[in-house]
Amino acid sequence: MPFDPGLKIGDEVTNTQLQKIFKCGNMGGMRRAKATGSLVIISDQTKPFYHDKWKGGVLHYTGMGKYGDQVLDGNQNRTLYDSDTNGVAVYLFEVLEKAVYTFKGQIKLVDTPYQTDQPDEEGRVRKVWIFPIAPIDDDEDLENPDPAKLAKLSINELAHKSQMVSGPHEPKLAQTTVYHRDAYLKESVKKIADGKCQMCGADAPFIDNYGEPYLEEHHVKRLADGGTDTIDNVVAICPNCHRKIHVLNDETDTIILEGIAEHNAEVFNRLLGYTKAITKHKQ
Fold this sequence. Notes:
Blueprint: E1 12-13, H1 15-22, E2 30-33, E3 38-44, E4 53-55, E5 58-62, H2 76-81, E6 89-97, E7 100-109, E8 114-119, E9 125-135, H3 147-150, H4 155-164, H5 183-193, E10 216-219, E11 234-237, H6 239-248, H7 251-282
Parallel strand pairs: 3-6
Antiparallel strand pairs: 1-7, 2-3, 4-5, 5-9, 6-7, 7-9, 8-9, 10-11
């Protein structure tokens, strides 16, 4: 069984705490801890001479060695290179701000390490080893993040996670159900609204390309939930209220909208009756 550091992904520790937990040294980006059978690797984004990059959820991690061409043998590059077979558990920490080490979990190689050119600490181009790694037990779905957690992230963290999922993505085929919507009914409700949002009462936010006040059709009970495309289930509201209703899904809003839709039905049926009466009189 690999060593359990007692940390959860996302936990932040100091360098001293990291050293005590893993029983490793307190310096360097790759720290071998024989007492815990571990290798701690640190991706320090605050240091300009290491160019670790996330691509599609995989961290392309730069090996150890500040000056000259990096080598595999005689250092921890070999430990990481052989980590699939040598029994050493590898753990990743990221540093996005100085002295703050964020635990990313146990990692594994997900592709063959390779060499590329990078500048060293003095700006001279040299050969480095790059290790493509990814967390083994990452409970964070980077492609579909939790909105509640997303809202709490700093702009720095948001930019970093955006970088983590950057890169080419294959398009996904999505199947959707399209419901019939009566264009005449939609326009009728907008006429009844007379250029004002039926939810907040404000004027329509702008005039559309046809010279009409812009309002949006909203079904009080969604068509997907069995609602009907009829006058007693449709209101005309501004884009702001429309988005608010869908985001909050507030029961009080629904009750208010039901009353508005009933009023629309009364007005519509009254106008319809008036039209029929005129038509009959002309005959």
